[in-house]
Design a protein that fits this description.
Structural class: alpha+beta
Radius of gyration: 20 Å
CATH topology of the largest domain: Aminoglycoside 3'-phosphotransferase, Chain: A, domain 2
CATH class of the largest domain: Alpha Beta
Strand content: 5-15%
Number of strands: 10
Number of domains: 2
Distance between the termini: 22 Å
Largest sheet: 5 strands, antiparallel
């Protein structure tokens, strides 16, 4: 590694994710920890993110089961914050968590559970469909309601400072991805990536904003709509919440396309939200930044790092030409 890369040992921790393939065994373990959730089986997998596997039980509960060693601390944060969010009567539901269980033999990285919120995840078809403008406006209204929550109360609940939190994510993704790509990409390609990170970190440190309460992971898989796709009914997964940059609640909408993102930003401004004067530049940096979390995650989990796949990912995000 070059001398400007921080080799903080904690950033290079590796682990093997728990094996949750046997859903019958997982269901029995959930029932043992949470008898009120019985009958748990048959379980249905809702999805797997970077840090958790989400399943729903036959009895109508959702459990997020940790697949990374740092996720339990964020589950604890979510546990503290969700009742406070619910007390403010936001324009869409948030989970009413009922169980928080610490790491154990069955669930090495812990878990968290709550009653199922009826709905389905927002899809690309929704973002491209006739209700796109209405849905974008509802997301904007939800974001604005969260952004207007009192930050002093959020800090009192242990919600972290978003700039500090993001800085640590950036440094971890930078250091681990460069380490993972060394010996996979050419030295010239690595030099381009190192230069990109220097530019990004300079941009990040210079960006000015008025801190607000944020969800920080507003995207399709965390947005629930009704069966007809006309109403936003719930917003899930608050483990990344922070008092930080309001634009953090729009960055993942880029993955639903530029038109949907534009509709959400226009609606937010129309409702009195913060103006983003350099939004195209800001979002361009964030789109490029999105190339790196998967690289870091693959290395940490011991997965193969293929040169052609990495080049394709980095080119798709505009980091490499």
């Amino acid at each position: 590694m070059t001398s400007d890369i921080d080799t903080h040992a904690g950033r290079f921790r590796r682990w093997t994710p728990p094996d949750f393939a046997d859903l019958q065994r997982v269901a029995r373990a959930i029932e043992a920890r949470c008898p009120e959730a019985a009958p748990a089986g048959p379980l249905r997998v809702l999805g797997e993110g970077f840090f958790s596997l989400a399943v729903t039980t036959a009895s109508g509960f959702v459990f997020r089961l940790g697949t990374s060693p740092d996720v339990f601390a964020r589950y604890e944060r979510e546990w503290r914050v969700l009742p406070w969010l619910a007390s403010h009567r936001l324009p869409a539901r948030v989970p009413a968590h009922r169980w928080l269980f610490e790491p154990s033999a069955d669930f090495p990285f812990g878990g968290i559970g709550y009653p199922l919120i009826e709905g389905r995840t927002l899809t690309q078809e929704d973002a491209d469909g006739p209700m796109a403008q209405a849905l974008a406006a509802q997301i904007a209204a939800f974001n604005l309601a969260v952004h207007r929550l009192p930050t002093a109360e959020a800090f009192a609940l242990g919600v972290p400072d978003g700039r500090d939190l993001n800085r640590e994510w950036h440094l971890t993704d930078r250091d681990v991805s460069l380490h993972a790509l060394r010996g996979v990409l050419t030295s010239a390609e690595l030099a381009v990536i190192e230069a990109w990170w220097r530019g990004f970190m300079a941009y990040f440190e210079a960006r000015a904003y008025a801190p607000v309460m944020t969800h920080a992971d507003i995207g399709d898989e965390n947005l629930l709509v009704d069966a007809s796709g006309t109403h936003l009914v719930g917003v899930l997964d608050w483990e990344h919440c922070a008092v930080g940059d309001p634009l953090d609640d729009f960055r993942h909408l880029q993955y639903l396309g530029p038109d949907f993102l534009r509709l959400a930003l226009e609606a937010y401004a129309g409702l009195g939200g913060t103006a983003f004067p350099h939004v195209e530049e800001d979002l361009a940096w964030r789109w490029q930044r999105g190339a790196f979390p998967s690289i870091r995650r693959m290395w940490q989990r011991g997965e193969d790092i293929e040169a052609d796949e990495m080049r394709a990912r980095l080119r798709r995000h505009g980091v490499l030409e």
